[in-house]
Specification:
Belongs to the TRAFAC class translation factor GTPase superfamily. Classic translation factor GTPase family. IF-2 subfamily. It comes from Mariprofundus erugo. This is Translation initiation factor IF-2. It is found in: Cytoplasm. The chain is an alpha+beta fold and about 375 residues long. The protein contains 10 helices and 19 strands. It has helices spanning about 5-10, 15-25, 40-50, 60-70, 95-100, 145-150, 170-180, 200-205, 230-245, 340-370, and strands at about 5, 35, 80, 85-90, 120-125, 130-135, 155-160, 185-190, 220-225, 250, 255-265, 270-280, 280-285, 285-290, 295-300, 305-310, 310, 315-320, 330-335. A 6-stranded mixed beta sheet has the order 5-6-4-7-8-9, with helices on both faces. The mean pLDDT is about 85. Bound molecules: guanosine-5'-triphosphate (GTP) and magnesium ion.
Length: about 375
Amino acid sequence: TDPILISELANRMAIKSAEVVKKLFEMGMMVTLNEGIDGETAVLIVEEFGHKAKIINAAAVEDVLIEDISDDDEGDLQPRPPVVVVMGHVDHGKTSILDALRKAHVAAGEAGGITQHIGAYMVKLEGGERVVFIDTPGHEAFTSLRARGASMTDVAVLVVAADDGVMPQTIEALNHARAAGVPMIVAVNKMDKVGADPEKVMRQLSEHGVLAEDWGGDTIFVPVSAHTGQGLDELLEMLALQTEILELKANPTRRGKGIVIESRLDRGRGPVATVLVQNGTFKQGDTVVVGSVTGRIRAIVDENAKQHRTAGPSIPFELLGLDSVPEAGQEIFTVESEKQARDIVRYRKDKEREQGSEAQKRASLDELFANM
Ligand code: GTP
Ligand code: MG
């Protein structure tokens, strides 16, 4: 922040400059009347006199935020792995499909066999390409998690159990994918089961405007079984085709920017945020801001508890080192310095307060008019 003259500061508070100087002396700062003091000290002083401080030259803060969304140079862009969200009705086999693809056993260890959070996993395909999968819960209670899952991905896989058919959260998931504007592939799961009826699934989805390629539409349906492994290779192939068309690119050379998928307070490790990198690269030691939370990246941990020095585009990772637990769904980005981080947080808090009091004012005005 720019320095401000003591006389100017005193003027704005309608007090004598000498009083400001006296206060500064008390705070251990030897200054003269004609000197300038920095913004942070000014804020302290203003608050000492019982006023509310607001940084006026917020331009610097705005600049940071604007730089963060500025365009990348064509030459810096490099291909990035696709991010694929897996959605569908509860128990239709989303986690099982991902387990089969990763040769892991997450589904078996879940409480009550129900996914209650968003999982993010990197899968390395045989050809060496990487795909990032986002697992979402199918239980009806988790609408916001599904919406969040859909909004940060490149492609959606809609899982429908062939024996159960289209159910309420199938439709909900479909609508999230549509709202997010992401292309969708339908995985008709549990093909190994007696009573599996993939045609019924196709018919039911056609009633919701999703028409299979085989029926003259443009949605790919892949019959699969998480249990036998049937169709999983084909599913990956279709995903590869689908994402190739998108030509996904990002700029790994810029400062990291991502979305907090999830956050929690870990007893031993403190605040933990699961971050999906959208652009740039996060590095150990970076100072980050998310909402009004700041911190320095102490560790970058992958889903197998392995530590890394950096995390580039499309990579999901656990971030340790935040001062407190941020709200999930928020944007996180790297800044130049801790001071910049503090400036941004103060700016945001000021704005919040402003909007809060605006809303309050409006509310009381409304009340006033209502009572007239
Ligand atoms: P939520 O996350 O709670 O919405 O469930 P989910 O969609 O992740 O389903 P999950 O993978 O937990 O599987 C639910 C049940 O279906 C489990 O008992 C699985 O073993 C079973 N299941 C999943 N895929 C298949 C399959 O291909 N065939 C058969 N027979 N059972 C399957
Ligand atoms: Mg699950």
